[in-house]
Amino acid sequence: MLRILRPTTASRFIRFYSSETTSHVTPNFKKEPLTPLAKHLRDSVKVTGPLSLSHFMREVLVNPLKGYYMEGDVFGKQGDFVTSPEISQVFGELCGIWYLTEWMRLGRPDKTQLIEFGPGRGTLMSDMLRTLSQFPHFYKTITDVHLVEASPGLRKMQRAALVKGSGDKDVTRIEGNEHEAPIETITRQDGVRVSWHDGIEVVPDQWSFVMAHEFFDALPIHSFEKTGSEWREMMVDMDDTEESEHNFRIVKSPNPTAMTKSYLSDKKFDIDFKDGDRVDISPDCWGVMEKIAQYLDRNGGSGLAIDYGQDYIQGDTLRAIKDHKIIHPMCDPGSADLSADVDFSFLKQAILQGSGVSAYGPITQKDFLQSLGIQARIEQLFKNAKSSAARKTLLDGAERLMDPELMGRIYKVLAFSKEPNTIKEEPVGFEKKKCLLESDK
Ligand code: SAH
To answer: In the Enzyme Commission scheme, what number(s) does this protein have (predicted)?
Structure first.
């Protein structure tokens, strides 16, 4: 995740699927040890042939055998990357304030809940709840916090952050039908219930606030390259050569795949792209965003998707990060984070085509935080800080979040909201930023 922006390494390692021979072989690379996850991936390639990048990414990140996220903490200075809520408490506080403004704008419903996708360490939710608890009229409407999280290790960390002093024995497990994982639930001292789910499909219907911070970039992508007048898909094959230490390599399908036909048949892919251009498409992002929009359409509510990316389709954005450095995406699968830039234009279409929910933006993180008064909040914390070290951390953090060269511009904020027709006012920070369906432009 930022996940610093630098050119990705993937494109330099593409080969054609049909095994080519190379003349300049560098012999004798010692292969990385085969972990159980790498063995499993190689077995899959043996059975089905090269895997789509999407298949590979999903397995690497959330396979129970030892997917990257499955065990626990990967964040912060000691981990692989740092995210905005981990940089400064102000980030979560201002997101909380945005929800408060939405609650007022949308008619102050008397029963609300918060749903967060991929909550990481639980820091963002914890900062939002602390801030919102200072507004008792609103806070007393919050009955539940629902966390959609794949990783058992991170679920534990989230519990520790949100329900202090709790242990495994305090969690109630509600068994679903045979196809559903049990829902885990625990109640905080202030009466708010916290539950963990595998997807929004199993979150009970209620008026809701949704948050997805650095979640969509972790969802798998398919990646394509225009070759002559046709599109080819990037796939992951075994690498048994002595040319690299990795056990896998990225190759190009010799023919269009089913995904190529499904996603790139639109005329614009013929006209707007030339030989050698790359595009990444994430059907998973579409699927999750559409489900969120349909949930809000049914129940009412409002939400934010905050991530790095652009408001248009991009290509070759897969990147692997370990120890705060960009590494080769095929390096020891499961040991490094894999992510891709988010295509916000795609998310917006998923909202607008799939529901009666409005979409706004995206705007930059800098503009979002500014509209919520980051300057005043930083000044207040600065005055109360107990040491010069604390003051420095505060200012460094604010700079990192806001500076257009750091996270201020590449991180974008998309808002979505189910608005009764009577409401003409727009969400704070998103004035005149309402989006139209592609076909209505
Ligand atoms: N929002 C946090 C963490 C971002 S990392 C922050 O900004 O600090 C991505 C998060 O999404 C992790 O919690 C990871 O375990 C979770 N995640 C990744 N893929 C997922 C999936 N398919 N389903 C549910 N959670 C997922």
So the answer is: 2.1.1.320
pLDDT band at residue 23 under the 50/70/90 scheme:
very low
298 lies in the same domain as 379: yes
Is the residue at 13 inside a domain? no
260 and 399 share a domain? no
Residue closest via CA to ligand 1's atom 16 equals 118
Number of domains comprising the chain: 2
Q: Which atom of ligand 1 is nearest to the CA of 69?
A: 15
Q: For ligand 1, atom 18, which residue shows the shortest CA distance?
A: 218
Residues 275 and 352 in one domain: no
- CB within 8 A of 145, min separation 6: which ones? 113, 114, 115, 116, 125, 129, 162, 192, 193, 194, 195
Which CATH number fits the domain that encloses residue 205?
3.40.50.12710
Give ligand 1 pocket residues (Cβ under 6 A): 1, 61-62, 69, 75, 83, 85-86, 118-120, 124, 148-151, 154, 213-215, 218
Q: Give the helix/strand (H/E) hosting 162.
A: helix 152-162
- Candidate of 69, 80, 203 to mutate for ligand 1, largest count of ligand atoms within 8 Å of Cβ: 69
Picking from 244, 266, 281, the residue at the C-terminal end of a domain is 281
* pLDDT tens digit sequence for 125-149: 999 999 999 999 999 999 999 999 9
Number of alpha carbons in the 13 Å side-chain half-sphere of residue 254: 7
Per-residue buried b or exposed e for 227-249, using 16+ beta carbons within 10 Å of the residue's own CB = beeebbbbbbbbbebebbebbbb
Residues 204 and 293 in one domain: yes
Evaluate whether 58 touches 282 at the Cβ level (below 8 Å): no
Claim to verify: residue 196 and residue 156 sit in the same structural domain: yes
Residue 59 within any structural domain of the chain? yes
Q: State the average pLDDT for the chain.
A: 91
